[in-house]
Specification:
Methylamine Dehydrogenase, Chain H; four-stranded antiparallel sheet; 1 helix
Length: 412
């Protein structure tokens, strides 16, 4: 316990120092990314870990702590401290199926396969709350912007007990159940709050027979009253912007386009076009400036990543790679996880074969290849940038491994 508190005190001291340097660092990075001939990022692998049944990774929002979750619980890694071992948190009695930090960085919440919820205060090894309410695996978690309320969701396949799939709203400090929002047993895939914390957003996947025309739905509830707003019919992939103001939905039955929705009014605000096929891995940048997605072709092996300007709807760049995708906090970098079959990329006269499982970092909106992060022969499942953008983590779930790189500064 003393070790954890001492470590947390060190984190806070380093946080103050890093905050003072971050503004200058971010300005340099943005300017460098905007130069016509940006040089390659000086990226080097910082650490690599294996966690049994590795399923989730999350960076803390205000300091460079990485949480890793798997079959045997939750582990923390402090990226600011070289050669540090993983620190396991206590309390997990089953595999972790969902994981999130509170926006203020004070809490870490995990949902377990047995339906339990665990909440830790940062710097403490033991959970401050253990909630036993759900009857099945907790699949989705979201915390309100003011870090006061937790939303949790567990899907029940029981057709006679649809209330088991309700969205549960909790007081994050006391663990008191505040409200239950009925989903009518529809399978939710995405859960979020709007930026004002007044609305809960859910993207659902419709698996009921005879309802193939609308394969997905966006649903919205008022947090105070529990009243549901009119539903938005969507198709295929659903992504919410970081502030919850916009939703993007890919389509399959009406292909070659993405719809953007206003989450306050529920109205369609724009249509983005795709070269061909349908889109997945939809990802917003941190300030909603850009939207990226992977276009999957109906015929042939080639896929690619497209980046759009959200305000104008213009397609800015096309990259011969696939997902997963992650934007850097400054919005001027995009990380991609795997190369497309048969794809090639020319950089400075050198041709690169892109059929691989390599993490690449590209400039936005120019689309220049800035770094190639070779990690393993296994497919990349997830990519995450740290809160200040200094580190990038890539997960390969098939081998229970996460690789972490220090991407440093961009030199002009």
């Amino acid at each position: 316990m003393v070790v954890f508190r001492l470590a947390y005190l060190i984190f806070q001291i380093m946080k103050v120092v890093r905050t003072a340097l971050f503004s200058l660092w971010l300005l340099v990075l943005i300017v460098a990314c905007s130069k016509p001939n940006s040089t390659v990022l000086d990226a080097s692998e910082f650490a690599s870990f294996q966690v049994d049944g590795l399923s989730l990774v999350e960076w803390a929002p205000d300091h460079n702590v990485l949480a890793l979750a798997g079959a045997k619980g939750v582990f923390l890694y402090q990226a600011d401290t070289p050669d540090q071992e993983l620190q396991q948190l206590s309390g997990a009695t089953a595999a972790v199926t969902s994981l999130t930090f509170s926006p203020n960085g004070q809490y870490l919440v995990a949902g377990l396969k047995n339906g339990n919820l665990l909440l830790w205060s940062m710097g403490e090894k033991d959970p401050m709350l253990i909630v036993e309410e759900h009857h099945t695996a907790v699949e989705l978690l979201a915390i309100s912007p003011d870090s006061s309320m937790l939303a949790s969701y567990a899907w029940s396949r029981c057709t006679h007990c649809p209330e088991d799939s309700d969205i549960h709203l909790w007081d994050i400090q006391s663990g008191q159940l505040l409200k239950r929002l009925s989903t009518n047993n529809i399978h939710a895939k995405v859960l979020a709050f709007t930026s004002d914390g007044n609305t809960v957003l859910v993207g659902t996947h419709n698996e009921q027979p005879g309802r193939a025309l609308h394969r997905a739905t966006i649903r919205r509830w008022d947090v105070k009253t529990g009243q549901e707003a009119p539903q938005v019919k969507a198709r295929m992939d659903i992504a919410f912007s970081p502030n919850g103001q916009i939703a993007a939905t890919g389509e399959k039955f009406t292909p070659d386009r993405i719809l953007l929705w206003d989450m306050i009014s529920g109205s369609n605000i724009d249509v983005l076009t795709i070269a061909s096929g349908f889109v997945g891995h939809l990802t917003f940048s941190h300030n909603n400036t850009f939207l990226a997605g992977v276009s999957y072709q109906y015929e042939g092996p080639s896929n690619d990543v497209t980046v759009w300007d959200v305000k104008t709807g213009e397609a800015l760049i096309f990259l011969p790679v696939t997902g997963p995708l992650a934007f850097h906090p400054c919005e001027c970098l995009l990380a991609t996880g795997n190369g497309a079959r048969g794809a090639e990329y020319d950089r400075g006269g050198d041709t690169y074969e892109l059929e691989d499982n390599i993490v690449r970092i590209w400039s936005v909106p120019k689309g220049e290849l800035l770094a190639i992060l070779d990690q393993s022969s296994e497919k990349v499942s997830e990519i995450r940038f740290s809160a200040d953008g200094s580190w990038v983590a890539a997960v390969s779930r098939s081998i229970d491994t996460v690789h972490i790189w220090d991407i440093g500064l961009v030199s002009g």
